[in-house]
Amino acid sequence: MKILVTGGAGYIGATFAFEALKNNHKVLVIDNFSNSKPEQILKIKNIFKENFEFTELDLAKEYRQLINCVEVFRPDIVVHFAGLKAVGESQSNPIKYWDNNVISSINLIKAMAINKVKKLIFSSSATVYGDSKFQPIPETAEIKSMSVYGSTKIAIENMLSEVAREGTIDVVSLRYFNPVGSHKEKLIYEDPLNSPNNLMPRIIRVALGIDKELKIYGNDYQTKDGSGERDYIHISDLIDGHFSAIDFIFKTHGKKIFNLGTGKSTSVIELIKTFELVNSIEIPFKISKRRPGDVAICYADPSLAKEVLDWQAKYNLSDMCMDAWVGVKDHGFN
Ligand code: NAD
Ligand code: UDP
C-alpha cells in the first residue's frame, strides 16, 4: 500500500513510518522539521533504501507543492500526524497553533479531494475530553477544550466529521492518551531536547543529568496519591492501533473515532517509581504547584477499539519505562 505520512519526522510519525516500511508499504513522509530533525529521516533512509521518499514542506504554507506531492505519489491512504502539540506554547501563541494545525489539515483535505484520495487516519488526542467526569473515558463523552491546542484538535475533528458526512473522505480519528517509550529497534524515540513539556521526556532529562530534578505539578489532586493520573501507552501499541485502523478504514465509510489507551490509570509518582525500579536510576523530584490547564485524571475506556478494531494494548508500565530509557541511553540523542 502507498501511505502518505505527514509529520513523519516526529516521534510518533517516524515510528509509524519505520514500522510501515518494515511491513513493506511504500511511504512518502512530509515534514517541515518545525519540531524534528533531518537526522530522523536519514536514519529511516539508511535502512529502507527502497520504498521510502521524503519531501520537506510546510503543509500550512505550501499548498501548491502539497497538491503536487499527492498527485505524483498517489497514496492509497494518508496518516496525518503533523501538528504542533505544546499546550503551554499554544496558550501564549494561539494564532500560531490555529494557523499551523488547522490550516495544515484544511490544505491536506483539499489536496486529497482534488486527487481523489479517500482514506485518512488523523492523530487526535485525549485532550479533547477536557476534565471529563467520566473515567475511564468512552468516545461518547462530552468534548471540551482546556487549551488552544485542544481547541485546534476539536476544530479539525469537527471539520473532518463534516467532510466525511458529505462523502469526500473517510476518516478514522484516533484519540491518543499518553504515548511513551520507543519501538523494538530503539531507533526512533522522543527527543528529550525537543519535547520538554511531557512527563516522560522530562524524567529522561533528569536521568541523563540535564536537569537536576523533576518538578511534580501538584500533589493535592483527588487521585490515589495526590499527583495527576494519566493513561500511558507504549508507542508500539499505539502504532499497532494505526495498522488496525488502516485495515478497518478500507471496510467502512464516514468518520469513526477510537480511543488508543490501555484503560489503566497511573499517577506521576507511580511512573517515576516504576522508571527508577526498572532502570535502577534515581529520579530526584520536588513537589511544585499545579500546572495551569492540567486535569487531575484522564484515562481511556479502550473497549470500542478492542471490539471494532480487534486491537488492545499489550505492554505494561515497566516495558514503557524500560523502552523509553534504553533508546536514549544506547543511541544518545541528536
Ligand atoms: P512531534 O512534534 O514529534 O511530531 C510532529 C511532526 O509534525 C514534527 O516532525 C513537525 O516538524 C511536523 N509538523 C508540524 N507542523 C507541520 C507543518 N505545518 N508542515 C509539515 N510538518 C509539520 O509530535 P508527536 O508526538 O509525534 O505527535 C504526532 C501527532 O500526535 C500530533 O498531531 C500530536 O498533536 C498528536 N498527539 C501526540 C501526543 C503525544 O503525547 N506525543 C498525544 C496526543 C496526540
Ligand atoms: N507532569 C509533571 N511534571 C512535568 C511534566 C508533567 O508533574 O514536568 C505531570 C502533569 O501534571 C500530568 C502528567 O505529568 O499530571 C502528564 O503530563 P504530560 O504533559 O506528559 O501529559 P498531559 O498532561 O498532556 O496528559
Please explain how this structure is put together.
The chain is built from 11 helices and 14 strands. By secondary structure, it is α/β, with parallel strands linked by helices. It has a 7-stranded parallel sheet with strand order 3-2-1-4-5-6-11, sandwiched between helices. A 3-stranded mixed sheet has the order 12-9-14. The chain has a two-stranded parallel sheet with strand order 7-10. Helix 2 (38-47) links the parallel strand 2 (26-31) and strand 3 (52-56). Helix 5 (94-114) runs parallel beside helix 6 (148-166) and helix 9 crosses helix 11. The chain is globular, with a radius of gyration of 19 Å. The two termini are 31 Å apart. The mean pLDDT is 96. The structure holds nicotinamide-adenine-dinucleotide (NAD) and uridine-5'-diphosphate. Residues 7, 9-13, 30-36, 58-60, 81-85, 100, 104, 123, 125, 176, 178-179, 198 line the site of nicotinamide-adenine-dinucleotide.
